[in-house]
Amino acid sequence: MPRTIAENVAEVRAKIAAAAALSGRRADEVTLVAVSKYVGDAEIAELLAAGCRDLGESRPQDLWRKAPLFRDSSPRDDQPRWHFIGHLQTNKIDRTLPLTALVHSLDRESLIQPLQQSAQKQSLVVPVLLEVNISGDESKHGFRAEELEPLLAKLATLPNLAVRGLMGMAGLESDEDKSRREFASLRELRERLQKNCPPNVQLNELSMGMSGDYEIAIEEGATIVRVGSALYQ
Ligand SMILES: *Cc1c(COP(=O)(O)O)cnc(C)c1O
Questions:
Q1: Nearest ligand 1 atom to alpha carbon 37
Q2: What CATH number should be reported for the domain holding residue 95?
Q3: Which of 49, 59, 67, 107 could form a disulfide with 99 if both were Cys (CB 3.0 to 4.6 A apart)?
Q4: How many domains does the chain have?
Q5: Closest CA to 139 of 104, 111, 103, 174
Q6: Tens digits of per-residue pLDDT, 1-46?
Q7: How far does residue 199's CA lie from ligand 1's centre (Å)?
Q8: Pocket around ligand 1 at a 6 A CB cut-off
Q9: For residue 20, what is the enclosing H or E element?
Q10: What is the distance in A from the centroid of ligand 1 to the CA of 178?
């Protein structure tokens, strides 16, 4: 029998709690972003009913449609928070920013000025994560680790972008050990950068881990996991 979304959410939460305990943390120190990019409105309503408030979308057009719908149908003091986790084209920035609580995927230098300009024009301060290509896969977006230090110095001068941390994905070909090393490398990168961090840049968040590897990611220090398909089996 197919499992309900509520059952899947409960199981994922239990596994998050167990993995957090293994890394000496409480379950509420890890944010579950329920990735809703695969599903329609009925399933999103089930996610909200199951207590998921952080939802992830990777296509701007889907976010533009879903976010206003669920803003209007959710209580004012209990609004969903939308996370943008996909590749953001510059012509989609203006409509995406006002709907987004956290952009996980600042993945290239050429996105920085357009993001800053759009945020400024709309009087927003936009929380962002820098996406790092931790696997080295050619197919993956993101900065190389060496690029980050000068990048943080530049971002620190931009008043409408608020850096909150780093995001990474394990390689497509990575087995458990390799994924673990890739996640650990993102945590270590964060620790190195924190030693010399410009003021008003924060690196508290580590967004890493998806359905296949979120427990490993949490053991290696993830503060945010982005889980999709495990919620819909
Ligand atoms: C789709 C997606 C996820 C969720 O992946 P699942 O394996 O279905 O959990 C997480 N992060 C990003 C960036 C995605 O695009």
A1: 1
A2: 3.20.20.10
A3: 67
A4: 1
A5: 174
A6: 779 999 999 999 999 999 999 999 999 999 999 999 999 999 999 9
A7: 31
A8: 35, 37, 58, 85-86, 210-212, 226-230
A9: helix 5-22
A10: 18
